[in-house]
Amino acid sequence: MNLPRSSYYYRPKSSEDSPEGQALIDRMEGIAEEFPRYGYRKVTAQLRREGLLVNHKKIQRIMRERGLGVKRRHRFVKTTDSDHPYPIYPNLIKHQAVTGINQVWVADLTYIRITMAFVYLAVILDLYSRKAIGYGLSNRIDTDLSLTALQMALQGRNPPAGVIHHSDRGVQYAAHEYIDVLRAYQFRISMSRKGNPYDNAVVESFMKTLKTEEVYLWEYQSMADVQRRLPYFIEDLYNQKRLHASLGYIPPVEYEAMLVPETLNHPCPTLT
Fold first, then answer.
1. Is this prediction's pTM over 0.90?
2. Which is it for the CA torsion 240, 37, 27, 243, positive or negative?
3. Positive or negative CA dihedral for 193, 197, 198, 203?
4. Which residue intervals of 79-215 are DSSP H helices?
């Protein structure tokens, strides 16, 4: 056909081969390293927040080609012990409309594996903003652990009377010591139905995020390792930077700043 050999073998360069394209890929890899559980929608949202005009289909393709997709999840271990003599309270949030902060707090706890042992984390979220407002770590999964998270939340929020406190039916939340504090601050006490994780889905989702984006990526050797890493993840990454689809791809602290006075928008104290 009298075509030059160079014309036959010519292939147009991809836009990703340009300096701008490589810069985009580098930034995507940086986001994926910081937030390994981000799918293409959240990566796209973060890039747009940074002023980049990107198409979600292109981001999805690049992430698939470069293996930047969501990693496989691990199994989760049950930590709720509802076989106890304490009273059980009805679920108050099943049909509750939440329109602002300090209306519903949700609480839960989980385990974190370290070398030859476990440590345990208790956390409290504000249901409206998804912000982690209280947390505690311990070598024991007991009422003192759940109280540590509660006291942190109380000190940081100074809640009004009538806030709903929702948890599972575990002994750590049903024990007299915990209930007495809730009553002293005039909380309305709410508990999930037996064996129904969907009743506390938001805090369950937080625990899964914590495991897949932090715990499974670090080989914790000791309690000291957990105490160094977890406050950073909760306060700096989850509360301050991580985009939440349910909030319109905005981090919890930024979301609260749009809704409440600045005096209510301060980070939780660091674990000691």
1. no
2. negative
3. positive
4. 143-157, 171-174, 176-184, 201-213
